[in-house]
Structure formats: structure tokens, C-alpha cells
Amino acid sequence: MALAAPGHTDERDGRPAATAPAVTYTLIAVNTLVFLLGPAAGLNPLYGSGRSRVCAEQRYEQRWGAVPAELLAGHPLTAEQLAEAPDPVPGCPAAPTPGKHPALSVLSGLFLHAGWLHLLGNLLFLHVFGPTVEQRLGRARFVLFYLAAGSLASYGFALAEAHTPDSTRVLIGASGAISAVLGAYLRFHPRSRVTTLVPLLLFLPLRFPAWLVLGLWFALQWWSVHSAGPGVAYLVHVIGFVAGFLYACTAVSRPPRRPG
Predict the structure, then answer these.
(1) Rounded distance, CA 225 to CA 234, Å?
(2) Which of 80, 111, 112, 79 is CA-nearest to residue 98?
(3) How far lies 121's CA from each of 102, 163, 199, in Å?
């Protein structure tokens, strides 16, 4: 787990004070609200409880999440295709979703999460690294960057998994977009200090350069692409991180400014 000190400006140095990261806070609020109202949180009585809630969650994700095969075909999966695909949840067969627009599901899928840990893990990284990147890019460009990078990561994953069983599985979560934020942060502030809780040392907080912490994080995601089992789309993290880093290399002409 990493906690970074984001960049600041200082009026005493003749530079304007940093504005509030309104886009970052708005994204955190929207992600949280969507999760609380959906079936995954288990708080909305409209979705029932127990087995019925689990099946409702599966149908909800199928309707609003991004499915790689649908992204490549440009239309929802048919009943025949769903019948041939493995059930995402045993005992809860996937139902067709007529009227679904796959291109829009890439955006709606960015605001869905499979559980509390999935949500809180993503929002922690967005809260830590998002404000600095938003300050550097500006609010309008940051929100476009966030949505575009998340969409690019989803489509990249779809192309990579086009002829595999994962092509019919639902892809949800903000991980691709947030990974792009991490990549951009690494480009803008590679030498800023990041406070990291090290599990092997009883979660002792230590400070390391951002290039080391985020570089190791990226290496772990890359390794997990080839070694981890199904359940987490690590390739989305890799694509998002690379996209964010490359965009940051070309988006800002002025030289990077060290935070704080």
C-alpha cells in the first residue's frame, strides 16, 4: 500500500496555490454512489439478498459492464453466444441485453466494482495520486484523460482476449483509468517521495522514490499477466499504466515541477 505526498504550489514562492482537485473528488464520489446503489454493496433492498442478490449482481454487470466480445463485434452477445459461454456465476445463466451499446458500456463499466475491497483499493490510489495529476493537466483535460485511458485499456484487453474464454466475461472497474493516473504521476514526479507500508516489515512505513514504488507495482502487474489465474484483468492495468505514462510524455510541454 502506498501513500504519496501530492505536489503543491506555494504562494510564498510566487506561484499560485493549488486548487482543490474537484474532478478527483467527483470521480471518487460517483464511484462510491454507483457502488452503494448497485447490488454488489448488498445495501440496496431492491436486489434482494442471498442467492437472488448474487444473480442480480451478475445480470447488472452483464448489462452495464464491458464484454470484450461485444466491444469487438459492436453489438450485445446473442442468446446463442451466451448459451455456449460458461456461466459467470454457477446457477445464474447470463441473459441477453437487448439495447445495450458496447461502446457506452466501456464508460459505464469504469464505475462498477465487484466488491468493497475492489472499490476501496481503486479509490485509495485515485485519492493519493489523482490530485497531483489533475493539477498538472487541468480539470477538463484530466477527466478526458481518465475516461479515454480507461476506454483504451478495455479495448486493448478485448483485442488481446479476442479468441479466449475471457472474451465473454464482463470487465468492470476503474483499474485501467487509475493505472493511467499512476503512469502519468510517474512521468511527472519520478523523484517525489512515496510513503509505503511494507508487509514484510510488519507494515512499517518507509519512504521511497515514486519511480521505485510505481516501477515495482508495474513489474508486479506485468508478471501477474502471465502467471495469475482468472478473476483480475492485470493486462488492463498494464495497458492503462503505459498509456498514461506515454500521454504524460507528450501532453505537457513545460518541464516537470517537483512537488512540495
Answers:
(1) 5
(2) 79
(3) 26, 30, 16
- The three grid cell numbers given for residue 31, joined into one nine-digit string: 464511484
Report the share of the chain in percent with pLDDT over 90: 52
User: What are the contacts of 220-228 at 24+ separation with CB within 8 A?
Assistant: 221/179
Instruction: Give the span between the Cα atoms of 122 and 242, in whole angstroms.
Output: 17
Q: How far apart, in whole angstroms, are the C-alpha atoms of residue 112 and residue 72?
A: 21
Write the single-letter amino acid at 130.
G
Pairing state of beta strands 2-4 and 193-198?
antiparallel
- Backbone φ and ψ for 6, nearest 5 degrees, come out as -70, 165
Is residue 141 within 8 Å of residue 251, measured between CB atoms?
Answer: yes
Q: 221 in the Ramachandran plot: left (φ > 0), alpha (ψ -120 to 50) or beta? A: alpha
What distance in Å separates the CA atoms of residue 249 and residue 63, rounded to the nearest whole number?
36
**How does pLDDT run across 45-93, given as a tens digit for each residue?**
988 888 889 899 999 999 999 999 999 999 998 888 887 777 677 778 7
Residue 229: burial class (beta carbons within 10 Å; 0-12, 13-18, 19+):
exposed
**194-241: per-residue pLDDT in tens?**
766 555 444 445 566 788 888 888 999 999 888 766 668 899 999 999
Q: Are the C-beta atoms of 188 and 248 separated by less than 8 Å?
A: yes
C-alpha cell at 175: 483499474
| Whether pTM exceeds 0.90 | no
Which three cell numbers mark 128? Answer: 493519493
Alpha carbon 179 to chain centroid distance?
Answer: 6
